[in-house]
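Methods — Computational structure assignment.
A single polypeptide chain was analysed. Its primary sequence is given first, followed by the predicted tertiary structure written as C-alpha cells.
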Amino acid sequence: MIPTERAAFRYKGIETWPTRDLVEAMLEGQIAAVAATHAVAPQMSEAVDLAAERLSRGGRLIYLGAGTSGRLGAIDAAELPPTFGWAPERAISLMAGGQGAFVTAVEGAEDDGAAAVAALEDAGLTADDVVIGLAASGRTPYVVEGLRHARAAGALTVAVGNAPQGPIGVEAQFYLVADTGAEIVAGSTRMKAGTAQKVILTCLSTAIFVRMGYVFRGRMVDMRPTNEKLQRRAVEMVAELADATPEKAEAALAEAEGSIKLAVVMLSLSLGRAAAEARLSAADGKLHIALAG
C-alpha cells in the first residue's frame, strides 16, 4: 500500500479525541515531516550542482505535478522571480488538468501521462532544462510519464515524493524522497507529505540560486526593487554591502537602474557603470568574484 494512503492505528478514533490532543498530534506530524527531509541532503546536494550548471547555460526550471504536489511546485516557481529576479518564462509550472487545476481540482487528470509529454513538448523542452516532478504517492502517471520523457530528451530530472518505492524514483536521475508515512487523515497529502515536499522544494531551489550567484552574504542581490518596500530594502542592502551612506546607495541604484549588484560594484570599487558592468560580466554575475582582487 502507498504509505500516505495507509490508515494508521494510532489515529483510529481521532474524532473522539479532545481538541487539544488532536491539534498537538497534527503539529507533531508537521515536525516529523520536516525531520524526514534531512535524509535527502546527499542527493539534493548533487542535484543542486548539476541544476545550477544547466540553468547557467540558459535552461529553465520546469515543475510537473498533479493536485497538492502540483500546486506546491507552482508556489515555488512563482516565488523565484520576486526573490531572485529570475525571468518568469524560465520558471514553468505544468499541472495535470491544465492551468485551471491550480485552483479547482480536475478529477482523473493525473492519470493522463500523455498530457504531460504533450505539455513538455509544447513548452519546448531542451536538454538544458531541469524538470522537477512531484508526486506524494510516487506513482502519479502524469508525473511518471513526464519524467521519463524529460530524461529521454536529456533534461536533468529530479523527483520529489513520499513513497520510497515510487516509480518516479526510477524515472528520475534524483529521487528526493521524504518517507513521512501515514497521515493523520489517511490520503490527505496536504498534511505531512505536503509539508515535506514544500521544505524540499524551498531548499532545492534556494540552494541552486545561491550556487549561481544570486545570493551574496545572505542577501537577495538579484531582487528587483519593484515597489516602495523593495526599494527601501534595496537601498539598505547596497548601503550595507558597499559600506556607503543611504544617500550614496540610492544614487548608485538609480544610476544602475535598480541593479543591486551593479550598484554595489560601482560603490565598492569606485567604478563607473560601464566598468562595473564589465567587471560583473567577467565574473559571470557573481558578486563575490567581481569584488575580489
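Note: The radius of gyration is 22 Å.
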